[in-house]
Amino acid sequence: MKKVLVQLAFFSFVLAPILACADDGREVVVVYNKRMPGSKEVAEYYAQLRQVPERQIFGFALTTNDVMSRAEFRNDLQLPLAHDLEAYGLWKLARTMIPVTNGEPKHVVRQIVASKIRYAVLCYGVPLKIASDPNLHEVAPATLSAPLRRDDASVDSELAWLPLLDTKPPLMGPMPNWNYGVTNTALLNPTNGILMVARLDGPSADIARGLVDKALQAERDGLWGRAYFDARGLAPTNPLYLGDQWILTAAEICRGLGFQTFVDDRPDTFPADFPMSQIAIYCGWYAGEVCGPFAQPKVEFMPGAFAYHLHSFSAATLRDPNNYWVGPLLARGATCTMGCVNEPYLGLTPNIAVFISRFTTSRFTFGEAAWAAQPALSWQTTVVGDPLYCPFERTDEAWLQELEARHSPLVDWAILRSINIAFLRGRLPGQLADILVNLPETAQSAVLTEKLADYYSAEGRRDAAIATYEKALQLDPSPEQRIRLRLTLGKLLQLKGSDAEARLDYQQLLNESPDYPGKAAIEREIISLPSPDANSKH
Questions:
Q1: CA-based, 20 to 30 A from 19: which of 164, 370, 430, 440?
Q2: Domains along the sequence of the chain with CATH
Q3: DSSP string, 63-88
Q4: Could you give phi then psi for residue 111, rounded to 5 degrees?
Q5: pLDDT, tens digit, for every residue of 90-120?
Q6: Residues 319 and 203 sit within 8 Å (Cβ to Cβ)
């Protein structure tokens, strides 16, 4: 039966270029802060797990503050790192004649002509931001708008143009990223003017170390779960419409890959009572502080999950587990993310549609996808997570076969993805329900049984849907999935006219999940419904 399933779906990845994530630790330099407790330990832990050569681990005496001055950045990090990369033979420079351009006379600069490394990993405690330099007196181009006439930047983004150091590019305003949108990973190289910088960071050193653990787990087992996208429903005339389109396009990419995909296009963010279960991918905007399901003590991030909230100050600090966005997302279990340390303006934030496309269908590493999605360098974005992380290296067909051979419960998610793709390719809910009924995994899987119930409901087979949702509740669903099942079941029972049964279902929800944020609304619903005793009198 699963062979039939594979043939039905056969996967959207077949249409994508077969690119492998062949990068390893030899292409990485690891940087830590000698003055920050725990920073070296994170660096050594990462280097051990990713087999980074010992000679490619560099410690520098940096400030322990989030913010460093422009002079501190230049003298304590930028210039020493450039020196060590050349001294250790990790990149080779050669003199190049630059012709007369833009009024500049002909001159000679040293440029990177060969590089053994492509990535730099900044470890817990390396400063996050570069403050504006009051002593910088560059003349900004007339074409640069006033809000962009600034030299503050994230450390990550400023370090990314390290290969161009000898060309002395202007520090005022963003620098165009000529690798933006690339589809060829070979271009993401210091010889092409970019060092892909990411950090293992967060509210604690333990959280920073955990980012590589979860990345490796997802590479070993796959990135499975559901995808959630929180757009705002903006009209094309809205000046922020671009942000919505990025998010909605990313949602369609994930839907096309077979992810069970949820899209909210209302102005508000996902509410706190939304049962967000088994999160593999989350993208949303535009709240200044972590909110909704992500403000709860526990969030159901799957190992390897990518989570991103677009806001101008989402990464104003990484040290706080409860304020802004990046720190809280990491503290609650996300494996990788991006954020802005200061106001970037929408068009200079990461293009999340490009990121999702490169990370999934093109099988870029996390670092490659993140920097291919950046319109600018020398600006405000920080990239947090293992840059080598690559959970989509194998096709879904290969995952399905491997997980089945390992008798892994994760095979349910591979089946779900293939079912969803078959639906997108024209298979009817009834046909797919018949397939699910005959799969032995369905009888033991809350994930597949819920999907079967969804198909019954879509066909108008209410009694079958009710019975199947009830069965899913007996198959050890996750806590948030259990809430969703209860809510869905209660609504169906009410539509059927089984109000007393609905009342019992909602009461069971409260018994199982006493801290549910929507408790008050459920209690009101229970009060409005007749009790079982009332029904029995008729």
A1: 164
A2: 25-200 (no CATH), 428-536 (1.25.40.10)
A3: -SSSEE-HHHIIIIIIHHHHHHHHHT
A4: -125, 155
A5: 999 888 766 666 666 766 788 899 999 999 9
A6: yes
